[in-house]
Amino acid sequence: MLATLLTGCGSDELQSTPYGGTIAMGQQAIQQAISNSARPVAAISVAMLKGNNVVWQQAFGASSVPNQTAATTQTRFNIGSVSKVMAALAAVILQDRGLISLDTPIVRYLPTFTMLSPEYTRITARQLLSHSSGLPGTNSRNLFTFAPVPGYAADTQAELANTHLKHLPGELAVYCNDGFTMIEQIVLAMTGQSYANFVETNILAPLGMTNSSYLTSVPSAGSFAYPYANGTQYQEFVNAYATGGLSSTPGDMMNLARMFLGGGVFQGQRVVSAAGIAEMGTDQTAGLLINPSPEWHWGLGWDSVQQPGLAAAGVLGWEKDGGTAFFTSEFFVVPQAQFALMITGNSGYDARKLAESIVLSALNEDGTIGALPPAVGGTVPPVASGPSIASAAGIYGNSDAPLQVIAGTGGSLQLNQWDSATQAWSKVGAGAYQYRSDGWWWSNSDAASYRFAVASGTDEDGNAYSYTYLMKRVVPGAGYAYLTLPIGQQLGALAPLDSAWQQRLGTQWRLTNDSPTAVPIVIDGNEPALLTSLPELPGYVLYGNNDLRHQLFVPLADDRGGMSVKVPGNFGRDLYEIRFASANNATTLTLGSSIYAQV
Q1: pLDDT of amino acid 10
Q2: CB-side exposure of 356: number of CA atoms within 13 Å?
Q3: Cβ neighbours of residue 323 under 8 Å, at least 6 residues apart?
Q4: Per-residue pLDDT averaged across 343-352, rounded?
Q5: 211 near 252, Cβ under 8 Å?
Q6: Beta bridge partners of 428
């Protein structure tokens, strides 16, 4: 999806500011990104706010590569999941008006909502907005397209009626787009307005965000950044409006930031209650039963309400990132400093590193912090005597591709990942990982380190659980804080597949019901997915391709395979169930609401 892109130079708006050094650093870094000969980025746009003043606003590069049209500060980008803060705002506005309560099960407001797991009746709007609802993940059908496709939210609700929860509501938090899509259905049910119309009327218009909208139809006006792939220019449509569909500019997003910093007030007009803003910025992880990642502090709509890089500097910050098939964005709001930043652009640059670097530099330059925090993770600790990992060896499942842990000599371990191209294990890193004095396994050639964590206890229904996770520790962003996340759950052996499943092994399946303008169809050529199994775990079914990634399914019946893992964070995010049906001498495979035919 990421094509070779050309560079250009855009426009800027600079105010008298104490941030001269920060702006110069940011300009240089952005110019390097759009000039990178290995992976140039077509356009990047940025805006920075201090108090009520936008102190830096500038666009770089070309909004249209073939025409070499310079991006301007009015050029709109698809900001992806940064849109989730709008969904949370919509929900707290509904609560302000007495139409919903965040802690009331959503079936009260949406009686047509149903799932196969009876516990779905417990799901609340708070859980939808904090990634803890237990919904499977993302309805991938017609998510990204090159023409508008209506009805995505209704299609998602219909698909959920045919699937189970992947965990009990409130048990853990794992990134979940479908939860925000269901907010669309709640807004429609409680107001009679479509989600897009509700947000435009109640948020975008009061905030003067005139360069922001949901692309529910082909726009007739406005300046847009366009993807350029395989020699063709497109316009990208994100049909999941609440979870990722806003098209906006950094300048408009600074109006949203002013409202956040003003406790719900913008230019003297109250848009939402101060309590609603505070609710969005409150850590939602305290009651989770399974939470092996201490740096994750989900808010409502926010990825983090204690942004790790800022926390390392002793500053409270809210962060939301966003990505679509073609664009990457970061949004920071720092309440105590009355500061905000939005950066967005075509994919191919490290948005988090750039944004975090700019924010911390600015806070240092204006005296909010006395110095930048020390960098972490640069030195590999010495080898130490470690625990036995014999019980931790085996296969680990997730939403991306299975992992294999092999116990080595002297307490070392080897990591492998399943390679779909070769249908074999591929080694992670160049050498073995050794236990080190900090309690993690490191190699001398990998900046990441690994360990194991066991989550055990009794769930809300009184059932005992115990999950072993492979934990990975990385240093994302500007390098000032660790991020620890589970990347796979250890899976036990199952009985061998029965004959119905055995007969399907080795079969390939191609998507049949996406729009012909869907990105995987146009760009990837509707790559077939392979159904197979792992030699090491023959009781599971392995299914996927590069677009779907590769997941291990547990047979639930001869015609249905279920989700096999509960992995918090990001590596258990987009799980599915797999169903088979036969009609007219043909068999179909259904994954979510996507229907596949055998090749």
Answers
A1: 47
A2: 25
A3: 80, 81, 329, 347
A4: 97
A5: yes
A6: 415
> What is the number of alpha carbons within 13 Å of residue 598 lying toward its C-beta?
13
Secondary structure of residue 13 in the 3-state scheme: strand
Q: Where are the alpha helices (DSSP H) in 415-534?
A: 499-502, 519-522
Q: Say yes or no to pLDDT of 55 above 60.
A: yes
CB atoms inside a 10 Å sphere around CB 27: 15
* Alpha carbon distance 61, 547 (integer Å): 29
Residues with Cβ within 8 Å of 24's Cβ and at least 6 positions away in sequence, in order, are none
Q: Under a CB-based contact definition with an 8 Å cutoff, are residues 60 and 71 in contact?
A: yes
Mean pLDDT of 191-200: 98
CB 283 within 8 A of CB 305: yes
The string of pLDDT tens digits covering residues 497-546 is: 999 999 999 999 999 999 999 999 999 999 999 999 999 999 999 999 98
Q: Are 308 and 375 in contact (CB under 8 A)?
A: no
d(CA 206, CA 196): 15
The C-alpha atoms of residue 412 and residue 443 are separated, in whole angstroms, by 10
Confidence at residue 12, expressed as pLDDT on a 0 to 100 scale: 55
The 3-state DSSP class for residue 441 equals strand
Which residue's structure tokens are 């030699």?
Answer: 535
Asked whether the beta carbons of 148 and 236 are under 8 A apart, the reply is no
Closest of 516, 518, 520, 511 to residue 543, by C-alpha:
511
How far apart (Å, rounded) are the C-alpha atoms in residues 121 and 130? 17
Q: How many CB atoms lie within 10 A of CB 421?
A: 7
**Average pLDDT for 436-443:** 95
DSSP result, 123-159:
-BHHHHHTT-S---S---TTSEESS----HHHHHHHH
Instruction: Give the residue carrying structure tokens 């309590």.
Output: 275
Q: Which of 54-68, 312-326, 387-401, 419-433 comes out lowest in average pLDDT?
A: 419-433
**Sequence-ordered list of residues with C-beta below 8 angstroms from that of 580, at least 6 positions apart, any chain:** 504, 558, 559, 560, 587, 588, 589, 590
- The answer to whether residue 557 scores a pLDDT higher than 80 is yes
Average pLDDT over residues 332-351: 97
Question: Cα(144)–Cα(515) distance, rounded to whole angstroms?
Answer: 10
Measure the CA–CA gap between 594 and 384, rounded to whole angstroms.
49
Query: What's the predicted TM-score (pTM) here?
Result: 0.95
DSSP for 39-54 reads S--SEEEEEEEETTEE
